Input
Amino acid sequence: MPITQTGHTDILVTAPAPHVAQITLNRPKAYNALCTNLLKELSETLHEAAGDSGIRAVILTGGPKVFAAGADIMELAAHDEDSIKQDIRPNYWQAVRDFPKPLIAAVNGYCLGGGNELAMHADIIIAGHKAEFGQPEINLGIIPGAGGTQRLLHAVGKSRAMQMVLTGTYLNAKDACALGLVSEVVQAELCIERAQEIASLIASKPPIAVQKAKHAISQAFEMPMKDALTLEREAFCSLFGTEDRLEGIAAFTEKRKPVFKGK
Amino acid sequence: MDFENIILSISRGVATITLNRPDKLNSFTDAMHAELRAAFKLIGKDDAIRAVLLTGAGRGFCAGQDLSDRAMGDGNSTPDLGATLDKNYNPLIRTIRNLPMPVVCAVNGVAAGAGANLALACDIILAAKSASFIQAFCKIGLIPDAGGTWMLPRLIGLGRAQALAMLGEKVTAEQAEQWGMIWKSVDDAQLLQEATTLAEHVATQPTQAYALMKRAFNASTTNDLDQQLDLERDLQKVAGHSDDYREGVSAFLEKRPAEFSGK
Output
């Protein structure tokens, strides 16, 4: 079942390579500020992609100039302490969190606040050389509300995370790469292309193994090491029941390219 | 913004910035810096501008920081010159080095202190034969700034750079040309015309390629050869996507003059 663009106003969905889908945030006048509708369209698209066996990897980008400069401030301004507790957006963030296939973020320009939190939901981040990462919520009298405090800590370590969140200052692409927040820094014009290369490479690998690997790594911060190791072992063993495992080993011994079927 | 301390004029794809405090040898004040920032912002937004020409009004090019400007602090308080660099000089140098188009400098007279290093930050420097360059900082107990400690050794070698900076000796335009500090020294009466012709010419050339090669040159001091080759690969890939590449090759094969759009 192919992903369609029908009815999407805040995102664009394209198919840049076999088995790869690309979601481009599409609110250029608002620097891709994450409004509720955008998050809704994003979560719906990911939900569809999860069920589409033809899609093996998804790229998330804001385009060549900006990733996302934060949440929609006007929407935030409309809330009070009670109404924010009823906010539907956490449901949409959950959908991103639950997405079982590899998600690769291609980040150019500003990646701030909710935008940075979205990027950190991705499994891999590729940064353009002008990318800037930040959690400036403190300037609005609030804090990151979509995992920023936790994921940033894991990504850049305590001192850097504290400094970024408490001062609202930004991290440039080079430093973000040195710290491990992002995998690579490339020329801005080539960022999305590089993400597409990586997505294609992953899409060429056995899909079940890919999903199990992503799950195992993602669980690392959700459970004690002992349990995570058990989970890893179970996933490892389960893959021995797949045809792709047999194909992989056969191709290796026969010195040929493997053809994976996703079984 | 109304410009009082500079003159900005735009013609034939060239934005000419004339430092305009001739009575004070075009020395820098907070106000002049603010106007320069505004001018470069305008230039950055205007697609029709494909080159910048920087020059000075009157008999001097730029004598550096105006020491009587209150930004320098009064005799009793300790001024924060670092803050001045952060606010005024460093952004200006970064803007020029990162501006995605050629910046031509016509040094019409004395270029002292930050005024000299402002000129040296430009891409192609022409100077009137009567012009001179003075790293005057040592005379008031300061170090060369506005990028001088980076640019000078690259242009003329560490030995000459250190001697000039420590002795504060004047360098004539002809000496500067001989040393490779600048592109050309020109008869006083010809300077503005020659610089304008040069700027108008580069404004008709492949602007994107100029922007990309500036990035390559900027990175070249700190890259090793392997990294630089990789960078050239990436930037050339981007350049190859440009309309001007297609036009350039077509024009060559069709044996006709190329018409570059700058895209």
In short: The two ends of chain B are 29 Å apart (CA to CA).
